[in-house]
Amino acid sequence: MIALDAHTKVSLARGHTDMRCQIDGLAARVEDVLQADPFSSHLFVFCNRARDKIKVLVWYHGGFWLWYRRLEKERFWWPAGTAKGAVELSVRELQWLLEGLDPSTVKWHRKVDFSLL
User: Fold this and answer.
1) Disulfide: which of 23, 79, 93, 110 matches 103 by Cβ 3.0-4.6 Å?
2) Handedness of CA 103, 109, 110, 112 (dihedral sign)
3) Could you tell me if 54 and 34 are in contact, meaning their C-beta atoms sit under 8 angstroms apart?
């Protein structure tokens, strides 16, 4: 199984993606639109226009994995726009997104700095 840790980079493609794209089409989109290396072992996440389907592409030990999730009634939060580049998330924020939360509105606890005491 693929191990995801705090150092795993997650890149969301802005706007919508044609979900008929499979591994080769999504890998090409990673290079062209996200301007990233699809063989980098990072997670590249794509969403359809209706925001009820997500595909995650990742390179792992000599081959691609393609994960797919479809919601029956709800919609995923997704960044709008067609600008090149990606929205960067942590693995934890990706988990929130897959659970139905909007990672941009989740509030963290303030960081406590005890060095001033």
Assistant:
1) 93
2) negative
3) no
Give the strand pairing for 43-47 and 10-13: parallel
Mind listing the pLDDT tens digit for each residue in 72-96?
999 998 887 766 678 899 898 899 8
Q: So what's the pLDDT on residue 116?
A: 66
Show the tokens assigned to 5. 């840790």
Q: How far is CA 115 from the centre of its chain?
A: 35
Residue closest to 65 by CA, chosen among 86, 85, 47, 44 = 44
In order, the DSSP letters of 46-104 are EE-TTS-EEEEEEEETTEEEEEEEE-SS----------SSEEEE-HHHHHHHHHT--TT
Q: Tell how far CA 56 is from the center of its chain.
A: 7
Domain extent listing, the chain:
10-107
